[in-house]
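Review session, final week

We close the course with one last complete record, chosen because it touches almost every idea we covered. It is Fructoselysine-6-P-deglycase FrlB with duplicated sugar isomerase (SIS) domain, a protein from Actinopolymorpha singaporensis with 301 residues. Go through it on your own first, then we will talk.
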Amino acid sequence: MEFVTEEIASQPGCWRRAVALAESAAAVLPRPGERVAVLGCGTSWFMAQAYASLREGSGQGETDAFTASELPADRRYDRVVTITRSGTTSEVLAALTRLRGRVPTVSLTADPNTPVMECSDETVVLDFADEQSVVQTRFATSVLALLRTHLGADLTGAIADAETTVAEPLPAGATELRQFTYLGTGWTIGLANEAALKMREASLSWTEAYPAMEYRHGPMSITDGSSVVWFLGTPPPGLLDEVEKFGALVVCEPARDPMAELIRIQRLAVEIGAAKGLDPDRPRNLTRSVVLDTANDSVQA
């Protein structure tokens, strides 16, 4: 875990650089009124979900988020954005190849020396946020910081919150519990999905994520005194009190920027993983980039 701990702690500085980059990147990012699709895999897909919700919610245009392998073949868009840390993800490259000459594409990546530079019409490189850990943290949040800034958000408060969360104590008792549920609304549903993925990747924990009100429609049955229920953003009225009755450890910081709150969850995942003797830099069964060998459909590093 030599890399991931440092990469988590570096996020406030990376976000500042992403905010600065947003101005020069604006020329190739979606324009108001465009119909846009955003593609990614794994963590990048969840950042796509968050951005799509934010963009559409701000009135800048209809915006859909898809995992890269599931882009509808016949749906028409004015622009397609892809998010790929490695620039080598097979499903992303395949989607860009299909779209070439049909719709403008722009890719956000950490590595300028990868195939995505050839497959995409335009690219935005966040090489300052590249990572050595397989478990992705700072690249994803830096991309979202850039995109939020492009949508007109002021991230001064988010960066200040991040500077706090990289060092403050984790919720008391959270590392001793066995089941983790992350809940969001609107754009933070994507963050909740990402929080659960981090816990699975880094600590092999039992984790789930839901839109906050959907949690009431069955999933709350798993919650008891061995659970953590963590809200990303402001919970719907009455839901927090309802969950507390189940005896779960409830974590809710509505005044904190949800992207900064994700940092605490990253830290929790790493701490639990380390206590289990796991290496979050090299999780079981995972590699930094998923590259499909079309000859036999195997997955390679």
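Two points worth writing down before the exam:
The mean pLDDT is 93.
The radius of gyration is 19 Å.
Good luck, everyone.
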